[in-house]
Amino acid sequence: MTATAPIRSSTSSRRRRRPRPARWLLVAAMAALAVLMVFPLYWMLVSALTPGGQSQSGSFYLLPEAPTLDNYTEVFAQQPVWRWLGNSVLIASVGTALSVVVSLMAGYALAKYRFRGRGVLYAAFLVTIMIPIQVTLVPSFLVVARIGLVDSPWAVILPTLFDVVGIFIARQFLLGVPDALMEAARLDGAGEFATFFRVVLPSCGPLVGVLVILGFMTRWNDFLWPLVVLQGNENLTVPVALSTLTNNPAFSSPYGAVMAIATITVLPLLVVFLAFQRQFVQGIASTGIK
Which chain regions cross the lipid bilayer (predicted)? Predict the structure, then answer.
């Protein structure tokens, strides 16, 4: 009796460890979804390596018959691609950094300070999310034109510093920071700025990761506002520049040129996401967004 008991227990544990059919179905569904999400990127790379571009070949295939870098060499030789990439990196990096600072400060004030009209002010912030950009496009352009910033990177950076979504996420995260920490810092003689930078900010790593990824992705992919305020060909960002290549008669294959640049523009987004991936997941889980 005593000798067979461990054998039975080990057998039952092995049966429990066997994956159920539902688990295999879930894994298969997730794998199929992953392939579906990655396939456009793969097709873009195949088109960039195909002479003439896959969209003009008249047939669909998964591997290029004669892969070549002619699309890359042609578009880099005829267009200021490096200048476009530099403009996008500058606008996305500086705009994201300044927007993160504004979101942290505003979210901290709305979460931890008690003042008259705080609820009304916060509600007004949230209402602006429902206003489409087409409504504010003309007034924003007139303001930028009066300042004299048209066709400059600051024309794209400054109007996007106030990020309502970022302020909302920052407020939701900072509501979970204990007030006792700030009260202890004030009792020790720390000022408001010292309390924020030395006590509150060190615990905002996940929040900063979320704001950086969302802000950088939004500014990197922004199209309509840069299209309005940027006019010179060398001052364009990558999304706007890509729209000018489809009807460019200088290229033997406009679609191949577009796909070639598109494969390069994906890399900065991947780098930023991989750098802040852990903070992004922790921040989304702790902000309380439903």
Answer: 24-45, 89-111, 120-142, 154-174, 195-217, 255-276
Is 15 among the domain residues?
no
Q: Which residues neighbour 110 within 8 Å (Cβ) at sequence distance 6 or greater? A: 118, 121, 122, 167, 171
Is residue 225 assigned to a domain?
yes
* Spatial separation of the C-alpha atoms in residues 159 and 170, rounded to whole Å: 19
Percent of the chain at pLDDT above 70?
84
Instruction: Return all residues near 288 (Cβ < 8 A) that are at least 6 apart.
Output: 172, 173, 175, 176
Euclidean distance between CA atoms 281 and 271, whole angstroms: 16
Share of the chain above pLDDT 90, in %: 20
Residue 36, both tokens: 């579906």
> Could you read off the pLDDT of 268-281 as tens digits, one per residue?
888 888 888 777 76
Whether this model's pTM surpasses 0.85: no
pLDDT tens, residue by residue, 236-248: 999 998 888 876 6
C-alpha closest to that of 238 among 211, 258, 255: 258
- The residue segments making up the domain with residue 203 are 79-286
Site of tokens 């299209």:
227
Alpha helices in 131-200 (DSSP H): 133-147, 153-157, 164-174, 179-187, 192-195
DSSP structural state of residue 20: P
- 90 lies in the same domain as 48: no
Question: What secondary structure letter does DSSP report for 55?
Answer: G
Residue with tokens 């195909």: 50
Distances, alpha carbon 198 to alpha carbons 11, 19, 195, 279, in Å: 56, 48, 5, 19
Per 3-state DSSP, the chain is made up of helix, strand and coil in percentages (nearest 5) of 75, 0, 25
Q: Does residue 210 share a domain with residue 99?
A: yes
